[in-house]
Amino acid sequence: MSLEDFIQEILNVRKREFSRLRHLDLVKSEISTDCMGLVYLLMQQQRVIPPSIKLKSRVVDFFNYAIRNQFKTNINQIRKYDLLLWKKESPPTSGDSGHILIVMSAPQEQDSGLYSIKILENSHFSDGPILREVLLNTLGDGSIQGIQWHPKSNKVKRARIIGFKIFKRAVCKRCLFSEITCLCPELPLEKWDPPPFKIIQDTREQKVALRSSRILDLCFKQSNDLYLNNCSERNQFPLSKNSVLVYPHSSSKMLSTQEDFTALKGKQLILLDGSWKQVRAILLGNPNLAKLESIQFKQENSPLYKIRKAPSAQSFSTLESFSFLWKNTYPENRSRALQLETAFKRMIANQIKQMGNETYLKNYSHYPGFES
Question: What confidence score (pLDDT) does residue 231 get?
């Protein structure tokens, strides 16, 4: 049974109570445990119990184990199914020594330094395991400093809060997404030869799990050849004489007719990949790019990247720009370009489903071009 299915089984249990017994019987639909007991039951089912952790171990025991290993302290490191825990400054020899919970969603920034996450926990506030939302407070560098954890108070608990990865999600070996969010049904059976496009990618973008260019990596042969490495020195990109920059400069030519697109055949189209701030930094750091002929275009459709924080309704992702240029410049590849977009839409829909519609509306409905 997968971790997600097992969690759902626990949440469906009818008879539940908070206690130190750490008892679960799915046949009788009953559970009696505390916060550490809930985590122990999940680790037991997934067969990932650390050797030093026993059935009667307390939160302080797991905390001491975690800090001897690869624990997390930054909000940007926290992932779904990570553990989040803290211990009391002077833990008693018995009873409550801290708290531990399971992260059930990626952190979503609500305000500067304030992030919401969904959690699974068992505490004396409830009669058994529950899903709910809490707020994490961070410093400017993302370090976790506190948690608004009490369901009836906005008070921030200040403690040394750490994250820890103990559960391994089942991952598709082909697309490397989780089995639940696998994109393989939308991907080509055989990878394609890439068009003469090049992407200059900010190095930080490579670490973004839901970057749009990840779809390109899954669909094209030798996808590394699509990228021009971002250099620290200026004017180091290996640009050809027929390179054309795709960027909405005020001086960029607006593509409006099929003849405009046809004229691009055989040219090396340069796309920039990263956040809008990162893309501007690439341009400022590489004046040779500004010397290139540049083009821009408008699309009738709204952006597919529905979980983006963009400055305008015409702010399209790298994949969308890539696909639009590919199907218009090389119409014989239109069906393949549409397949790229279908895979991308599925990836975004999966993420929205994971975060929940309420969270999605809360975090993105105020951006230009938003569509539910």
Answer: 45
Domain that holds residue 264: 182-364
pLDDT, tens digit, 9 for 90 and up, residues 126-168: 878 999 999 999 998 889 999 988 767 788 888 899 999 998 8
CATH number at residue 52: 3.90.1720
State how far the Cα of 59 lies from the Cα of 95, in Å rounded to an integer.
10
**pLDDT confidence bin for 13, thresholds 50/70/90:** very high
Looking at the fold, whether 109 and 207 belong to one and the same domain comes out as: no
Total count of domains within the chain: 2
For residue 310, the model assigns a pLDDT of 64
Residues 14-63: pLDDT tens digits? 999 998 888 999 999 999 999 999 999 999 999 999 999 999 999 999 99
Domain final residue pick, 164, 190, 215: 164
